[in-house]
Amino acid sequence: MDRLGIRAEDDPIRRSLLFVPAVRPDRYPKALATGADAVCIDLEDGVALEAKDSARGQALNILANRSLTRAEVSLRINDVKTTLGQTDLAELVNSGVRPDALMLPKVSGEDEIKHVESVLASRSETVPLIVQIETARGLSAATEIAGASSNISALFFGAIDLSSDLGCAVEWEALLYARSQVVLAASLAGISALDSPFMNVQSVDALAEESRQVRRLGFVGKAAIHPSQVSVIQQSFSPSVEEILWAKKIVAAYEQQQGGVLLVSGQLIERPVIRTARRMLSTASRLGDKQRS
Length: 293
Hints:
This protein is of the alpha/beta class. It has helices spanning 27-33, 52-65, 83-95, 110-120, 136-140, 142-146, 159-166, 172-189, 204-217, 230-236, 241-257, 271-292, and strands spanning 16-21, 38-42, 72-76, 101-104, 129-133, 152-157, 192-195, 221-224, 262-264, 267-269.
């Protein structure tokens, strides 16, 4: 993200991020077929303890044999503070395969980021990191964590684990402060903020409403746990026709006046509003390019 708040052209679009358990490799092509912006092969919550070793091998096999796709394909390993997470990381490095991004769950401090990067240092190229903020300690250190490395691509808010840690309800009001803190930390670091999955896969309307709420809060995307959620999430995080027309109108008026403060349809337009409008138009343009590719 540049200093005007407009995302760089190489900043991944992640309106939706669909999790696929590594123990179900048959679901991987189905996940890609949903059109999700990102697909994450999961070694953590989606895998039972007794299946961790076999899941790791299956995940690495998927990554080693995957073909080029429009979707970002990431890998979520286990908590690097655990033996399982350390093994995941070591096996990833030894395999020589490279996910498009590496997701780190339950990060509680910037020292974990430094450790992961030291292990990955043997690779010939860096791996973007998606860092999950889902513990009380991680939330309290979110700003330091987000700025710990230039390789951090996004912060991921984990509502379920955090609510368990805090002892609060998994409800909008109860988690509003925590979500806001994650957005703030991500913004200070110039990276994206991604929201937690919506756990009721049958409640489409509630998913759409929560997606719209977190978008208004500053999140750029939301995770999915079922293919049926992808289209709802992506529509919620895509600029609408009305929003695009509004953005074009005020940018054109601003440029015609060559800056300054102006009124458009009775609304006061200043530089921050222009920054928001340009960001929206940039996103819309990139989404159009992605769909045509």
